[in-house]
Every structure is written in structure tokens, then in C-alpha cells.
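Operator note (shift B, R.M.): manual run for Hydantoinase/oxoprolinase family protein requested after the automated queue skipped it. Running by hand, logging everything below so the morning shift can see what happened. Input copied straight from the record, untouched. If output looks odd, do not overwrite the archive copy; leave it for review.
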Amino acid sequence: MNIVGIDIGGTFTDLVGYVDGKIVTSKTSTVPADPTQGIARSLELADCDPNELNEILHGSTIAINTVLERKGARTALITTSGFRDVYAIGRSNRIQAFNLFFKRPQPLVPRSLTFEIPERVLASGEVLQALDERTVAGIIAEIEAAGVESVAVCLLHSWANPAHERRVGDMLREALPNVFVTLSHKILREYREYERSSTTALNAFVGPRVEGYLKRLETYLRSGAFGGKIHIMRSNGGVMSIGQAQEQPVSMMESGPVAGMIGAGRLAKLLGLKRCIGFDMGGTTAKSSLITDGAPAIETGYVIGEEADGQPMQLPVVNIVEVGAGGGSIAWVDNAGGLHVGPQSVGADPGPACYGKGADLPVVTDADLILGRINPQRFLNGGMPLDKSASEKAMMSKVGTSLGLNAVEAALGVAKIADTSMSLSVRAVSIHKGIDPRDTAMIAFGGAGPLHAIAIAREIYIPQVIIPKLPGTFSALGMLMASWRQDFVQTFIGRVGELSEDAVNKVYAELVASAREQMKRDGISETEADYRFFADLRYVGQEHAISIPIESTAQLSGDTSEVRKRFDAEHDRRYSQSAPTEALEIVSLRLVLTAARTDNVAEEWLSRPWEPEAEVEVGSRDVVFDEASKPLKTAIYWRPALPAGFKLTGPAVIEEPNSTILIHPGDEVVVHEAGHLLVTLAKQSEE
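Run finished. Output pasted below as returned.
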């Protein structure tokens, strides 16, 4: 079995594969104009012939970047008469109560391209008003005249009865075969009109761009003799076929970062860590996720962008908190003399000043190079030598001169601000969730993650940091561990204990039928499938629900004591209180369908005994750690040469082909038997 995982980030394209019985890797610059060029280059660098591969797994930031940059298709929205402004109005809550400049999310579809059609379906699924096809035909003509590239159709209560929505979709495809069409019931079958409208609009907005990219990718791979499977990472931690990804690109919003968290979960389980925090720092952003019992948390509500003004998405997503601070984040000084880092990034082209491509904007990578933390001759295993003088020039021209600082002082300030910014994402998945960071460990990866993770962990008192093998390409490695997964949901509201067993069985039968249809399309057999059912429950009067696993429909319509017990316990775990005497209400029924991988080569490799490639040699150079000390003469190690059981105490820099680990003074490192680095932070005062 020859498989590879390819992760396209904003700055680098990473590859990890298991080919002919061994792990292969590569890291190359992303090509924003045509990401398939980066994929071709990564395969070439890893000496991988696509025609000899059985499976390619792929994750990309193209969908989420399309939303964040608002570079999607010209999109129209069709909805029910009287509900034209649901998407624009959104929710009435004010998330930032004291922000005088607070702005609500700006719709991806302008009001001028939002159309109403006469029709009405009740929440029961009953048709109150028939669809007016003549009006639909007129609207289609307007859409064509407006030069629309994509259409989102979200009719009221189509989650209960999608007949009208299906007919509108048929008319659109017949009249406008080149327009991308998204029907809300194909994306999700849940109530909440605003979130459903937003999710449908998101899919339509990114659809043409993502579909075009995936078609080019498939054409490139199939142009030779590659006949294997192409799987795309989903935001829920599973994978899907490339065909489904073209239809539902909204499902791959966080496909790259999620893969890294899946890998971190597997490593946490291997090391016996009950609770840890996955931390991924790449070139554009830094991401954090809380991992419990080897699995990251999955939420059904997510926001693309900032919480206050981002785009809501009502799909299962691995709970990742992201901040705009990465190796390529730009350092800049505002008019008041304040130093900032990010959220803007230089990306892959032209990249940091030190890449020597003519850029004059200083970024975090430039700061790390100036501080001596990065070896300019070993960057990307020596494949991209860095220009330190270019970094110093950019740092002085944009930061140092205006603030009266020399290059080292300015670089140290940039690094400190970046660390503080990134620590906010770690706090959001720990302290803000009621988790004491002192009871966790951090698993740090990404090209820049091991450089900054220990400083971040120290700031919030995380006692241990684990640097896995291949940290610089760890998200690509995580893809090799992801199972095929599909989530099916249907809104179904009623009192637990008062539900009709026939009604519950009918909904579950519909979910199973949809699941089997998707299995057939993707070539998944019944023997591979694992069906897991859930009920979204809440106390009567609450707004949001909690998903609780169930084994049979009788647990909802017959003896409900077990479901009641599970819900109260989960509510108490999350919110430190429960109300066992309050009535329970069901909101939705869910089916999570998975097909486990037939191989586990990546997980086996995580636990495979470590074999060093050479004798340990120790070099040295001056490295700046903080403003309280002068540059320290620091030991430099080559990680592939460190044997299992090897111990060292900081200050130290541990270099490897695609990443660098910064060990602060007093911190202790032990090489795990499988080659992972276990870093115990020096004890510090908490005052």
C-alpha cells in the first residue's frame, strides 16, 4: 500500500507518504496562482511517482482563504417570499458589547442578488403554498443577465420537505448548466434559517473556485496512469471523495489544520495523555485544539473568521481556534507608534524578506533569523538558504528606525508579540473552557510551531511540550490516519419520553438511506461501515443542544432513563450543573458513518522504535531568548542523530530538515523511545 498525504498551506505545501515500506517527506513553497504546481513539485521532491500510488489524501486552505479574502464567485441567493433579509439580518445578539465599532457579519451575497419566490412549506413538511414555477423562470433569467456564477437555494423549512428546493435546482441546472448550484437540503437538514442560509451561501460562494481547483488536480493526477483513490480531508476530521468535495466544498474549510489535530490525538493516545492541547503554527496562522482521550472536540457551530463578524457555518467541525499569527505574519507600526504582528501575511510569494525574493516587509520568520534561532544554511534541509542581512534591513526600515530600536531589539519585540497573540488561541481552548493548563501537555507542530511553543506554554503554565517526529509536515502525516466519514442530520423536535417510536424510526430510516446512497457513490461496503447514532438534546427552554450517543430508538420513545443519565452527566461536565428534574427535549437526530482505514501504517510509524542516522555532534552559536539576557552561547543539535533516551538541558536549538526546536534555559529534553521529544519546562513562580 503506497499512500501520500499532501497539505497545501498559505506558505508551504507539505507531503508525507508511506511508499515501498518507508516514510517519505517533502516541503516546498505553495504556488498561489496554481496550487497543483506545488503538488507536482512536492511529489517530485519526495521521489513519488503518482502512477505507483494507491491513494492520495489532500487538504487545502483554498476554501477558507476564498472566504477570508472574499474572492469567491458572484453569487445569488433564492429564498421564500418574505424571507429575503434573513441572511442579512442574522442574529440580534451583540457579541462585543463594549466595542463602539462593532459590525455585524457582511453577507457574501448582496441584497440585489437575493431573490424571493412564492412557495411555502410548513415545519411539519406540509406544503402550504405550491411553488410558482413561472416566477422561478423569470428569476433565472434575471440571474443569467446579472452574470451570476453560483446560486444558493435556501427555502423555508426545506429541511423538512425539500421537494420545492429540488425543483428549483432542476430548473436552474437545465437553464444555466455552467452555473454552480447549491441546495440547502443537500448540505444540511437542520433548522435555524440564518445559519442554514449562511452555510448554503458559503458553499455557493467558494464552489466554483474550489471545484475548478479540484478538477485541475484530478486531471493532473489522472493524466498519467494513476488509478488510485483521491480523498479530501473534511473539517470533521474524516475524508471524503474528490467528487463529493467538488459538490460540497464548504465541508473542507478547515481540512488542513484538522489533519494535524487528528495526528496529535493519535500521538496523545500513544503517550497516555488524557488531555492535551494541539498547537500548529504555520506560515499564515496558528491553531489550537483541545484533545481529550485521543480525540479533538467536534462542534456543530463554527464561524469562518472572527467570532463577531465572521461567517457562521452549521456543520460538524473539529473545534480549532485560529489566530492570524504565523511565520509569515507581517510586523508593522501604527500611527501612534504601536508595534503589531499580523493578521496580514506575506504568503508564499514573495514570502519573508529573508527568502531573497525582493520583499521588504519584516515577518516573524525574519525575527527568528535575526535572533539566531534559525540556521540560515539549514532552512528546508538546506534547500532554501536564508538572507539574514535582508531580514535586518527590512526589520530596521519598517520597525526599528521608527521605534528607536536596533534590529535585535525590534526582532525580539516582534517575537514576543507573536507569542502573546498565539497564546490567546491556546487560552481559548483551555482556560476559557474551564480547563487548567497545568493539567495538560502541549503537542506542537507546524513548520514554526516548535520554535515558539515552549515560550507560549511557559506563559500559561503548561508543564510539558511534546514535539512529534516530522513536526514540520505533521498535518500531512495526520491525513494518513483519517478515516472516511460522513455526518447525516435531521431536525426532529419533541419531548423525550413522549415521542412516537414510529416517527423516530422513520427519521432514522431516512438517515440510513442517505448514508447508504453516499456509501454506494464512494465505493464503501457495508462490512466497512460503522453506524453511530446520536440525539441532540436540551432541557426544555434552552437554546442549544448537546449530542448524546444512543444505541436504539427505544431509548428516546420507550425507557429513556439511560439517555437521561447520559445527558445530565454531560451537561454537568460541560457547565458544572445539571437539572435532573427538568423535562428533556430532542432537537435533531444524527448519524455518524465512518469506514476505518484498511491500513494503519502512519500510526504504526508513530510508535516505531527510533533509530538515529548518525553520531551526535554538538555545535554552538549565539541565540537571543529574551530581553533580560544578552545572546547566549547555545548548543546546536541535529535531531536525526539523537538516539532514544538521549537527554539535554537548555539553552539549546535542535534542528531537523523541516523545522527547528528552541529549548529555553533550564528546560529538559528526553528523546522518547519512538523518537518524539518530551520537553519538561523549568519550574517557575506563578506570581
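Quick read of the result: The mean pLDDT is 91. The first strand starts at residue 3 and ends at 8.
Leaving this for review. - R.M.
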